[in-house]
Amino acid sequence: MTGFDVIRGYIFGDWAAAAAGYQKQGLPDFAGYTVGYRLVRAYLRRSGRTAAAATYLPWRELVEGSGYL
Question: I need a labelling partner for 29 at 20 to 30 A (CA). Which of 13, 14, 22, 43 fits?
Answer without folding.
Answer: 43
